[in-house]
Amino acid sequence: xxxxxxxxxxxxxxxxxxxxxxxxxxxxxxxxxxxxxxxxxxxxxxxxxxxxxxxxxxxxxxxxxxxxxxxxxxxxxxxxxxxxxxxxxxxxxxxxxxxxxxxxxxxxxxxxxxxxxxxxxxxxxxxxxxxxxxxxxxxxxxxxxxxxxx
Amino acid sequence: xxxxxxxxxxxxxxxxxxxxxxxxxxxxxxxxxxxxxxxxxxxxxxxxxxxxxxxxxxxxxxxxxxxxxxxxxxxxxxxxxxxxxxxxxxxxxxxxxxxxxxxxxxxxxxxxxxxxxxxxxxxxxxxxxxxxxxxxxxxxxxxxxxxxxxxxxxxxxxxxxxxxxxxxxxxxxxxxxxxxxxxxxxxxxxxxxxxxxxxxxxxxxxxxxxxxxxxxxxxxxxxxxxxxxxxxxxxxxxxxxxxxxxxxxxxxxxxxxxxxxxxxxxxxxxxxxxxxxxxxxxxxxxxxxxxxxxxxxxxxxxxxxxxxxxxxxxxxxxxxxxxxxxxxxxxxxxxxxxxxxxxxxxxxxxxxxxxxxxxxxxxxxxxxxxxxxxxxxxxxxxxxxxxxxxxxxxxxxxxx
Lengths: 150, 400
Hints:
The complex is a heterodimer.
Chain A: H1 3-13, E1 26-32, H2 38-49, E2 57-60, E3 68-72, H3 80-88, E4 95-99, H4 101-105, E5 127-129, H5 136-149
Parallel strand pairs in A: 1-2, 1-3, 3-4, 4-5
Chain B: H1 4-9, E1 13-16, E2 19-24, H2 26-34, E3 39-46, E4 49-55, E5 60-65, E6 70-72, H3 82-92, E7 95-97, H4 139-143, H5 148-156, H6 163-178, H7 184-212, H8 216-237, E8 246-247, E9 250-251, H9 259-269, H10 273-288, H11 291-316, E10 332-340, E11 343-352, E12 355-362, H12 365-378, H13 384-391, H14 396-399
Parallel strand pairs in B: 2-5, 6-7
Antiparallel strand pairs in B: 1-2, 3-4, 4-5, 8-9, 10-11, 11-12
Helix pairs in contact in B: 5-6, 6-7, 7-8, 7-11, 7-13, 8-9, 8-10, 9-11, 10-11, 11-13, 12-13
C-alpha cells in the first residue's frame, strides 16, 4: 500500500474532532488460579450488571487477543504452569492485573504448601486490586483508570 | 443373622453429635462397604483412621484403622467413593486396597510435600496439566492447630457461592463439639443470610442457564436482580456475599440499621411471575429436549420465589437478644450440616482443648460433579455447555 493510501485510510478511521471521547478498550484474559469463586461472582456481575463493555472492558478467551491478564486466586501450585503459559502466549504490549487479596499476595492462603502466594510469584503485576472479594464498583474504577493508562 | 446395621451399631463407638462414630474392624468395614443401602456421602482420614459418612435413615459415621498405609476400598461397591479415595491418597498418603481409580485427584507433583496431612508417601511423577486440583489451597492443613473462631475464615472461603452455608456448617460442627447452643437471634440472622445466599444462588443458576442458552434478556434480568441481592446484603451485613458474617458461636455482627429496610425493599422489588414467564418464554424450546436442564431451571425458579417470599417473615421473627456466645475450649468431635445453594454441606471437626486436631469439609460438588460429567458425556456436543450451566458446580468447594 502506498503512503498516500495509508494517509487516506488513517483519516477515514479517525473520529471527527468534536466526537465524544471513546473509552480505551482493554481486552482482559481471565485466569482462575485457585479462587474460591467469590471474585468470579463479582466479576460476572461487573460484566453483566455494571456495563463493563461501555467502559471499554471486554473479556476475551485467547491470550493472543488479550491486552491484560486478569488473575484471581492465590495461584495454587497446580495452576502455576498454566498461568505462565498464558502469559507467554500474550503479544506485547501486555500487562497483568491481580484481582482480589488472594491474587495480590496469597490472601488468607499465604504460606500454604499448595499455593505459590499470588500472581506476582509467576508473572509481573502492573495493577493490584485488593478486597475479598473487591466489589464490582471497585473493579470498574480501578480497571477504567488502568485502561486509560496503557 | 444380624442385619448389617445391627452389627455396625454393636461396634465400639465414640460420641460425634448429632450422631456417633462407630469404629469397625476391617472385616465389618468391608461388609458395611458391600451393603448397597449404606451409600458413602463422604470419606476422609484422621490420625491413623479413615472415616466414612454413610447415608442411612440418618447419616452414620464409621471408621477403620489404617494398617501400614492401607485400608479396604469402598469404591468397588460405591463408585461415588472413588474421588474421595483419590483425595485421601493425595492428602494423607493412605491407599484404598482394591480401589477402582488409582489416578491422583489433587496432587500432581507440584507441592513441596507429599501427603501434607498424613505420612509422606511415594510421590507421583509431575503431571501437566492436571485436569483437577487447580483450586486445592491446602485448607485442611490451614485449619489444624487453630481455634474454630480463628479457622472460620478458611471454611468461609472453601466455596464463595456458598460462603454463608459453609460458615454455618463449620460453626455448627464447632458448637456441637463444644456443647454450646447459639442465641435465638443469631439463629434467626443465620436463616436470613442463608436465605439471601439461596436467592442469589437461584438467580446465578438461572443466569448461567440463560447465558448458555443465549437468552440475553433473561441473563440480564437475573444479573440485575442478583446485583440487587448483593447490594441489600452489603447494606444489612457489611459484605455483599456475607463472607465472615457467620462465626462459631453466632454471627459476627447484628444486622445494621438501614439493613431491614433494604431487605424489605429487596423483597418488594423482586419480580415473581415476571421472571418465571420470561424464563419459560426464553428457554422453552431448549428445555423441551433436556429434562435435566428443565428440572434445574424449575428448581432455580422455585428457589428464587420461595426465598424472596421468606425475607420479610424471617425479619419479623427476629427476637432481641445477644448474637453470639464464647465457645468453651472442648475436646471431642462433631458433625455440622447446612443446606447450601447446591446441596448439603457437611463439616466434621475434631477438637483437642479447643484447637482443631482434625477436620473435613464436604462440599456437595463431590456428589454433583460426577453426575454432571455423566450427563454431559451422554448429551449431544451442542447441549454440553447448557448442561454444565444447569448441573455443574464450581470446583473450589470439593478441591479444598
